[in-house]
Amino acid sequence: MSVLNRDEILESGKLKTEVVELESGSVIVSELSGNDYMEVCELSRKVDSDEIDMKKFQPLLICAAIVDESGNRIFSKDDVELIKGRSKDFYFKILSVANKLNGLSSSAEKNSDDNQSSEASIASA
Fold first, then answer.
1. What's the rounded Cα separation, in Å, for the pair 93 and 95?
2. Contacts of residue 27, Cβ cutoff 8 Å, sequence gap at least 6
3. Topology adopted by domain 15-124
4. HSE-up (13 A, CA, CB side) for residue 85
């Protein structure tokens, strides 16, 4: 394997995107930049702790990952409550792709499975 030069490093660092088909149309989900990822983590921290609160992290990740055709964010951190109010199918479909693009799939799938198990337990009660 060869050692990359500056230009090759910058070229290989381009953000990956994926188009997600929804009932009403398409959404572009993007991998986060290092800065965006650090911002989402910082905003997701539990009070007086270094631990991440997944109830904060997941909607912030979705807000940061949805972009337009030019790669610009559509939502900001101020839109978290709006995103949390979308349907469960929308939320988990976008979250799944955002997790995959950002290398978070294994922990995110476990959390999603736990959430769905909890919902199933509530529904059967």
1. 6
2. 19, 20, 66, 94
3. rbstp2171 (3.30.2220)
4. 4
Read off the pLDDT of residues 38-85 as tens digits, 9 standing for 90 and up: 999 999 999 999 999 999 999 999 999 999 999 999 999 999 999 999
Residues 6 or more apart whose CB falls under 8 angstroms from that of 69 comprise 28
**In the prediction, which pLDDT does 106 show?**
57
Residue 98 amino acid letter: A
Residues whose CB falls within 8 Å of the CB of residue 33, separated by 6 or more in sequence, listed in order? 15
**27: which 2 tokens?**
């959404």
Q: What is the pTM of this model?
A: 0.78
pLDDT at position 13 is 76
